[in-house]
Specification:
By secondary structure, this protein is an alpha/beta fold. It contains 7 helices and 5 strands, in the order βαβαβαβαβααα. It binds adenosine-5'-diphosphate. Adenosine-5'-diphosphate binds next to helix 1 and strand 4.
Length: about 170
Amino acid sequence: MERTAIYAGSFDPVTEGHLDILRRGLTLFDRVIVVITHNPDKRGCFTVPEREALLRKCTRDMPGVSVDSWSGLTTAYARRVGACAMLRGLRDGGDWQAEQRLALINRRLCPEAETVFLTALPEHMAVSSSAVRELASYGAPLTGYVPACIEEDIRARFAEAAARRNWTGV
Ligand code: ADP
C-alpha cells in the first residue's frame, strides 16, 4: 500500500529548510503532500495562490510531491487523504516546544497519522520564512535561504519596500 505523508505549514514563503525536510521525507514515504495551512481571518505576506505557485516551481522535479492548501484542521486533511504520517522539521528547542505540543494534540485527534520529526541541517538552523521576508524587504541577497528558481519572484514581490529601504549591501 502507498504510504502518504503530509507536510503542513504556512510556507510564507517556502525556504531551503522546508525543501530539505521535504526531500528527506521522500526517502521515507511514497508520496508527500505539501499542505499550505492558513487561517482565512489572518492575512499572510504572500497570498495562498502565490505560496502555492512558489512551492510548485520548487518541487516540479520532485516526483511524489503534490501541493495543496487547506484552512481546516491538519488532522482532518490527513484523514481525508489517508496519510500515515505528518512530517515536521525541527530547528531548535523553540521548535521542539511548539512541535511537541502540536504532536500531542494531533495524536489525540488522529492517532493513525504518526508525527515524524526530522532535524534541520546545520546550515538551515537560522533559515525561516520570516528571515526571508525581512531580508527581501531590504533587497538583500537570498542565496542559501530560498532556491535560485524563486529568488527573483520573491525579490520582485518586495521591490517596492526594498527601494524605500535602500539596501546598501553592508
Ligand atoms: P515557519 O515555522 O518558518 O513559519 P512553517 O510553518 O511553514 O514555517 O513550517 C512548517 C514546518 O517546517 C514546521 O515543522 C517547521 O518547524 C519546519 N521548518 C521551518 N523552517 C525549517 C528549517 N529551516 N529547517 C527545517 N525545518 C523547518
